Amino acid sequence: MHFELTRDFLDNLIEVIEKKDEKKAAEVMAEMRAVDIAEIYDSLNLDQAKYLFLLIEDREKAADVIAELDDNDRSRFLKVLPDEVIASKFIDHMDSDDAADVIADLPDERQGEVIQKIKDIEQAGDIVDLMSYDEDTAGGLMGKEIITVHINDDVEKAISEIRKQVDEVDDIYYVYVVDNDYILRGTVSLTKLLLASKGSEIKDIYNKDVIYVRADMKAEDVANLSDKYDLVALPVVDELGRLLGRITFDDLVDVMREEAEKDYQMMSGISEDVEHSDKIWRLTRARLPWLLVGLIGEIIGSKVLAGYEIQLATHAALAFFLPLIAAMGGNAGVQSASIVVQGLANGSINMESTFKKIFKEFSVAFINGVICAVILFGYNFFFSDSFALTLTVSVALFSVIIFASLFGTFVPLALHKLKIDPAIATGPFITTSNDIFGLLIYMTIGGILFTLI
Amino acid sequence: MHFELTRDFLDNLIEVIEKKDEKKAAEVMAEMRAVDIAEIYDSLNLDQAKYLFLLIEDREKAADVIAELDDNDRSRFLKVLPDEVIASKFIDHMDSDDAADVIADLPDERQGEVIQKIKDIEQAGDIVDLMSYDEDTAGGLMGKEIITVHINDDVEKAISEIRKQVDEVDDIYYVYVVDNDYILRGTVSLTKLLLASKGSEIKDIYNKDVIYVRADMKAEDVANLSDKYDLVALPVVDELGRLLGRITFDDLVDVMREEAEKDYQMMSGISEDVEHSDKIWRLTRARLPWLLVGLIGEIIGSKVLAGYEIQLATHAALAFFLPLIAAMGGNAGVQSASIVVQGLANGSINMESTFKKIFKEFSVAFINGVICAVILFGYNFFFSDSFALTLTVSVALFSVIIFASLFGTFVPLALHKLKIDPAIATGPFITTSNDIFGLLIYMTIGGILFTLI
């Protein structure tokens, strides 16, 4: 079954650490899975974590623990370890992609030192290769651990090739078929090999229709591709089609989750990847920036309203609906922006022309704007004494919903064109701009209608 | 390589359909992958889609196309097909989990009819079994296609068992090891089997440490578990530990993505799963409900302000900062709520007591509130003539940030306790409540300070 972290378990473990009961602590580490050990890091101090982690006897597991820690925790942990320990106890036993990530996270001056202390020369070479790729590309996600067979092998030869290579690969999802130039020609599954009759040739049983990616493909696009085709592993090739490595589904799931979280956080006005369990200072730092952006924007909004002081003093009832106009503009704008942002993220938005997108958005906003404006008109018609106010508020609400919806559609599309993350359009910056424009629209309409009626 | 849907491709395809060029159309269908065929559905009308889909010769592919369509598209498509065609052309060739989903989507009166027309009795039995599980549980996600070997088999016997079963399983990720009572004892990988020496016994090479789930486990929890342990497939067992089926990573990725999208949409104030490519009417229907909730809330807000008419008429400058107070309360509240909602979704929030959570949130809000209030005080101190206003606005901003943050933390925790989706707390309902309370706080503080100063 799986492990559940409880307060009791933690208290017992900390007691074991404090008593320096090495035997017991090593036993607990031997029983736990790597990812569960990584999970308890947050609840320990650095000395306790160091004591425990160095007691992990299985080297592969120790390496996995380090790979599973989040970037901040890992940096703090590796800072207190000498280069030799990092290289021999951890890096030497990691998959090449995890190893490259860990080394990339070290301070620049330590990276070379640690790499030089790696005993497995092939591993060191793979790491140096992998570090040359941008981390947001297929190359940055791939690992070098792949199993290949030659297209001219027969099944027996292929199986003996696999035997030779299997040590370094944890999970063989596909066996890749290559030719003399190491160009990827296809895949063959273990099932096929296991069930093939003696003497069959790889070229007769392999699958030619393989989906692969180039090393420079964007990580997000790779994740969308693997999600669409339900791929458990994706081979990565260079410009010539030569096989470089493979990306496994777990790393792509991480990319998807991070993208989704980034968009979610942007909409919440949070600027860093934080969790409720983080320290107060980190939570504050993640939240203050967008609050300040909102504050400055709204100060400008107050300045705009100050320009209408006389009007507001004469018709105080105009003020009653200021929050309504601002809020409804914000709501409509965020709806539009978030639909566009999701469409851009999953690539579903490309089939329509920009004009058609804007027209569609206008239609939706028109219907919703009319319905909301009519309801508000009805309410004020019965409960307000001033027909000028009744008309102003309804016309302004309609106009603001239209404006905010179009603005909310246009801004993420424009940001995307400019190669800026369109998710910004769902955050406080745009909501605040929407507020300001909304107030301007409202007060202008008010100015006209109160003069006319 | 992979397929990219272009306008040109579509125009050509539609021309082929209109010319009734069956040979060419069948050729195109033979070349395309199932998921790509499903993707073009949106760009065709029902007759065109029917014409094309019935020309798919490979039955497995035809079944996959149906499985890949989204629920709405599928219902519309199946409505125009007779029961026999659905059963024999599609259901008979689907994985049991997809088949059960498709049948569950049919109108109640058709379900029995279609099931009776399935020729493969085992498949029909599996579907009936699977339909008894709630779709939001492990049972609702699992498929019956698994490969099992007996714990007392030797490797040769095991391989011949696998040969017998392999036909019905697309991707063998693990071979499950069971005993006489069909109780799950562990797994053995194909690699191990392929590389095992002749005469080895399963019981000496299988992996006992397997992570499994009970059929009644919630889908979201299953997805979190597989994400945490990077599992490509998860076996599902009953109360006695007997193996029922397996869930593959692609279905769990879908669960994760749907959960993330639901939370995102809730925060955007969208009530249905829509995409920008959907019809105007659907987009409108998904967006209107929360706009109306916001509208009604803000009408109440305007009513609250109407209670302060004299105050607003006397000190018109108070109105300048109404949108600021409302917006900042909204921003702070959404930040808090979204962090709690994410923590609840990924289970990372459980280690702290509710008191500690609230205290932490208070600390963060206190720091951010002080910083924002001081900045606003400084601005007004230099640019406003009224010290009463300067003080009112700053004190109110501080109070509103504290209130909204605590409210934003408390509401999702309470909803979670009440077994209501906590994501509602990030939507317009709570933002609007926050607005109303914020305005009350602001006007009350204004009332006190303008009298005193």
Write up what this structure looks like.
The structure is a homodimer of 453-residue chains. Chain A has 453 residues and is mainly alpha-helical. Chain A folds into 3 domains: 7-133, MgtE N-terminal fold (Alpha Horseshoe), CATH 1.25.60.10; 148-248, CBS-domain; 280-452, Tetracycline Repressor, domain 2 (Orthogonal Bundle). Helices cover 66% and strands 6% of the residues of chain A. Chain A has 23 helices and 6 strands. Chain A has helices spanning 7-18, 22-31, 34-40, 46-53, 59-68, 71-79, 83-90, 96-105, 108-116, 121-131, 138-141, 155-165, 190-195, 202-205, 219-229, 249-268, 280-306, 309-314, 317-320, 322-346, 354-383, 387-417, 428-452, and strands at residues 148-150, 175-178, 184-188, 213-214, 233-237, 243-248. A 3-stranded mixed β-sheet of chain A has the order 1-2-3. A 3-stranded mixed β-sheet of chain A has the order 4-5-6. In chain A, strand 5 (233-237) and strand 6 (243-248) form a beta hairpin. In chain A, helix 7 (83-90) packs across helix 9 and helix 22 packs antiparallel against helix 23. The mean pLDDT of chain A is 90. At the A-B interface, helix 12, helix 13, helix 15, helix 16 and helix 17 of A face helix 12, helix 13, helix 15, helix 16 and helix 17 of B.
Write the SSE topology.
The structure is a homodimer of 453-residue chains.
Chain A: H1 7-18, H2 22-31, H3 34-40, H4 46-53, H5 59-68, H6 71-79, H7 83-90, H8 96-105, H9 108-116, H10 121-131, H11 138-141, E1 148-150, H12 155-165, E2 175-178, E3 184-188, H13 190-195, H14 202-205, E4 213-214, H15 219-229, E5 233-237, E6 243-248, H16 249-268, H17 280-306, H18 309-314, H19 317-320, H20 322-346, H21 354-383, H22 387-417, H23 428-452
Parallel strand pairs in A: 1-2, 4-5
Antiparallel strand pairs in A: 2-3, 5-6
Helix pairs in contact in A: 3-5, 7-9, 8-10, 15-16, 17-23, 20-22, 20-23, 21-22, 22-23
